[in-house]
Structure formats: C-alpha cells, structure tokens
Amino acid sequence: MGLPGINLAETRVPIAIERPKAPGGKPDVADVIYAIHRCYEGHGEELPQGSELIHDADGPTRVTPLSVAKGAVMLSDRIIFGLLAVAVLSPANTDQSVPDSYFLTFGDHAKLPINEWWGRTAEFSTIVAQDPMPQVKLDLGDYPPPKTSTPPRPITTPSPTLGSDHAQRQQQTNGEGTKRNVSVHVS
After folding, report:
1. Total domain count for the chain?
2. Burial track 147-186 (b if 16+ CB lie within 10 A, e otherwise)
3. For residue 4, is it within any domain?
C-alpha cells in the first residue's frame, strides 16, 4: 500500500543513518521513515535536503516512484497511506473512529472503509491475496560511490521471473554526483 511492488524487507537504502535497525547494518525504508521523517518532523526540524516526499498519491495505481541521491532518499507520499493502514489494521486501535467517508484502497479494486477495518489485520491478508503483487528487491548501490574510474553501478533489473513487471531506471547527473530515480510498475 505504501510502496507497492517494492520488497521492503530486503531493499536497503544507501544513505547514512545512525544505528539502523535493518539486518545487515544498512538502513531500510523503515529506518528512513523513523530517522528522517519521524525524528526531524517530530522535533519541528526541517527535513534534510532531498528527503521530501514525492507527491504522487493521486497518480496511477501500481506505480511507485523513488529517488535516491547522495545522502538522501525521496519516498512516494503513498507511504503515508501505508503507515495509516498499519495503524488502522492494528488490533490496539479497534475502538477508534473517523468520519464515515474515510477509506483506504489496495491495488486496483479494494476500497476499505476505515471504520469497518479498525483492528482487522488478519482479514487484510484476504484482500492482499485477491490482488497479488510481485515484490521487487531494489539494488540502489552504495553511497558514497566507490572511488574508481568506472561509472556508478546501475540499478539491477528485477528477475525475469516477474513476467511483465519491471523497474524503470534512470540515472541523471546533478552537481553533487549521481542521482537515481526509480519507478516500479506492477501489473
């Protein structure tokens, strides 16, 4: 829901974060959300440059943009709805309510009225099973890039076993080094 098509358990983000919690010592998206978005915004500080959210929640479904530059990552603003879903589906929140018109969506067809979904984590797996999405592990490389005469390593293309699913990749040079923009399209 938050970053459709991206394997959040295995994808690592090449930015410096103190004491990342993800296995292997490199930060994952959860580390970015906590260390950058929760800590900076929660303490009233400005986000580091290049860490803003990409505004695309009202864009096409099944497309997830992500931008990685030296020391920064820009996530899709769809991550907000993924985090909201975690709170809504948590059994600890069954006593909550919102206006009846509020809802979440999953995939192309599932519309989930929030007041009907408080605390229903177990039942959500049924919704996910009706609209399965491949999960692409992104190889975003390392920062800082190794000091060699060869160009930066490109983002790897997902396994051909994903059929028509693919990750589009671009590399652009900005004044600070290489910026990698990734859009994962899931069909």
Report:
1. 1
2. eeeeebeebeebeeebeebbbebeeeeeeeebbbbbbbbb
3. no
Which pTM was predicted? 0.73
* CA max distance for the chain: 59
Q: Is the dihedral of CA 144, 146, 151, 153 positive or negative?
A: negative
Asked if residue 90 is part of any domain, the answer here is: yes
Q: Is residue 20 part of a domain?
A: no
List the structure tokens of 14.
Answer: 């090449």
Is residue 128 a part of any domain in this protein? Answer: yes
Instruction: Count Cα atoms within 13 angstroms, Cβ side, for 61.
Output: 11
Write out the residue range of the structural domain in which residue 103 sits. 29-185
Outline where the chain has alpha helix (H): 29-32, 39-42, 79-89, 114-117, 121-130
Integer-rounded Cα radius of gyration of the chain = 18
Taking the C-alpha atoms of residue 103 and residue 101, their distance in angstroms, rounded to an integer, is 7
Q: What is the pLDDT along the chain (187 residues), one digit of tens a residue?
A: 888 888 989 999 888 888 899 998 889 999 999 988 888 888 888 888 888 899 988 888 778 888 888 788 889 999 999 999 999 999 999 999 999 999 999 887 889 999 999 999 999 999 988 888 888 898 887 754 444 444 443 333 333 223 233 344 333 333 445 555 666 655 4
